[in-house]
Amino acid sequence: MFRLFQVFFLTLMLPQVVSAAIEIPVVYLKQDVPRPPVLSNLDPVPDDLGSAGADLGLADNMTTGKFLGHTYTLETIVVPEGGDWIASAKQALALSPYVILDAPSDLLLGVADLPEAKGALLFNATSPDVALRNESCRANLLHTLPSNRMRTDALIQFFVKRRWTTLALISGTHPQDQAFADSLKHSVTKFGLKLKAEKEWVFNADMRRNAAQEVPLFTQDLGEYDALLLADELDDFGRYIAYNTWIARPVAGSDGLRPVAWSDVVEQWGAVQMQNRFHEMTGRDMRSEDYAAWAAFRSLGEAVTRTQSDDPATLRDYILSESFELAGFKGRPMNYRGWNGQLRQPIPLVTGRAVVATAPLDGFLHQVSELDTLGIDQPESKCTAFAED
Amino acid sequence: MKLIAFAAATLLAAPALADEIWVTNEKDDTISVIDIDTLEVVRTIPTGERPRGITFSKDHSVVYICASDSDAVQVMDPETGEILHDLPSGEDPEQFVLHPDNRRLYIANEDDAITTVVDTETRKVIAQIDVGIEPEGMAVSPDGTIAITTSETTNMAHWIDTESEQLFANTLVDSRPRHAEFVKEGSELWVSSEIGGTITVFDVATQAEKGKIRFEIQGVHPDRVQPVGFELTEDEKTAFVALGPSNHLAVINADTFEVEDYILVGRRVWHMEFNADKSLLFTTNGVSGDVTVVDVAKRKAIKTIKVGRFPWGAALRPTN
């Protein structure tokens, strides 16, 4: 017993696990983009959307790191509208090979293709663009936000399960709306459901005043359907559709029942603890982009913890390996698709007040991972960048 | 004479003739008390908000309850169900363990990344120890020299020297560690990892990993096999492990670390407790809101007992 205590006091001097000091600098690089006006003044987009998730990731990693002698830093660079994105990207890459990106997809590719980014490890935390995970994929660019395809597959699985087989669609005119609408249509076909009617939202009247009069008429010629899909990714008109449709049907997509990476209504699997930490730090609820930035930073932290390395190539290999596993508070271990760099993850289907279901739903099976029933799957993938290395 | 004996028996019948299993119902703010002879709920006792961890004092004169959302450890008289007083527990106490000295309570404060040590007699905080994020699993070695906290997001077992109340080692485990126990006279520490799907076995003398237990259930996706609570039989040759949303217990050979059997129980099984002679095992099934009774020798579920919403912890109250 005495001997045991001696050992204790010796180890007390060295409170860490065997490891050398490692310092991991991370940059959060954001391009400010103008937002088109929307009908409602409710729910403004927070200025720190995304970057606040990186802040939480930093705090989480630091707590783990202090027991291991690992430290992390976070530098946030915001490029104003009209600013020099590429110059800022070079500045970021001079600071660190680890960059979390918050920008539209063409700008992401601009960074990934820089000579300075060769060997870097970039994370896309905000673009749901399917092409980035497909024909435009880059070996140094990983994706923690789910693609549009993952989200729409999740929603359509739910309809299959409920046997709501005939659908109608109203889509907005912004490119984001169109991309989401395309993805919805693709998922409808993939799971063998029927899209019976679709319309484009072309009103320019102020719907806060007369939605009750306009929407019933607008939806009258959609005919019979089981559920109404909305592609309104900028949050413009979608909120005025529910309860105003000509026939009594649920709405889903950008409003109503929404497939998301994260929402403040997720509470199972220990999620409450993370929601509390985030709320305490920011004073607001955690959203999908925050979650994706957190997941990017935590992925790095998990790789550093397990490999005890600060080498980008070592960390990338580990992150894309089968040993990698991120506990993301969504009930299953999450890892990356080694063939296109997308983080596999469950997709909660939420209303404003509750999680209705979490995809993949029971019964959707897959030979590799049930999570691969969501989004582009390996056999259909046009991404080749990951096969080359 | 016989009549008198009968009368005496009925007089005593109300409280505590049989041993009991006490189950905390996380989303009902109650404890369900199960009579082990009849396997029925005989009492339902109100508690503070979101009761989770539960343990009796060594002499079973009081029961400690983590009332997480009341930010308190409540001390209850098990006879009357009355709350005697609260202990200063730190914020959001989730799980705790009572030191063999029957005084010190080691409490995991889930929202604060802290382990709080409370003296149950003076009702004072003795120490607060910084640990990883979302501390949960708590254990004390049988000789009382080491306490363990596991942290769910940091993925570590933190080793606390109970003399100095300071950390002396931090060891990595797989994702989301939930439960820790010292076994085999304190020579091994077992830590379950819910998302990692494993139990890591440490050699206590060196804090080195000496083995890993893995699970595989036919027809259940590995992602859903999530080990949480576990207990060992009297001879410590067999372990029962709750596997969460796979709705099964695993039966483990505690020497070879191999799985010998799986037992189907209720939905999302988390924690468990034996009766006094360890012939019966009671599991808390959160989603189905019930307790499964398992015959330990036959390795079979023999009964399901409806309790409150989201049963979480379980503790044995012997009566003689």
UniProtKB/TrEMBL annotation, chain A:
Sorted keywords for this record are: Amino-acid transport, Signal, Transport
| CDD domains according to UniProt | PBP1_ABC_transporter_LIVBP-like
TM spans (from-to): none
Where would one find the signal peptide in this protein?
1-20
Biological process according to GO: amino acid transport
The entry's protein name is: Amino acid/amide ABC transporter substrate-binding protein, HAAT family (TC 3.A.1.4.-)
Automatic annotation (TrEMBL), chain B:
Task: Pinpoint the YNCE-like beta-propeller domain residues.
Answer: 5-314
Question: Gene3D superfamilies under this entry?
Answer: YVTN repeat-like/Quinoprotein amine dehydrogenase
Q: Which residues form the signal peptide?
A: 1-18
Q: Which InterPro entries match?
A: Host-pathogen_enzymatic-act, N2O_reductase_N, PQQ_b_propeller, WD40/YVTN_repeat-like_dom_sf, YNCE-like_beta-prop, YVTN_b-propeller_repeat
Report keywords, A-Z.
Signal
NCBIfam families tied to this protein: beta_rpt_yvtn, PQQ_ABC_repeats
From the Swiss-Prot or TrEMBL record, give the protein name: PQQ-dependent catabolism-associated beta-propeller protein
Tell me which species this is from. Answer: Thalassococcus halodurans
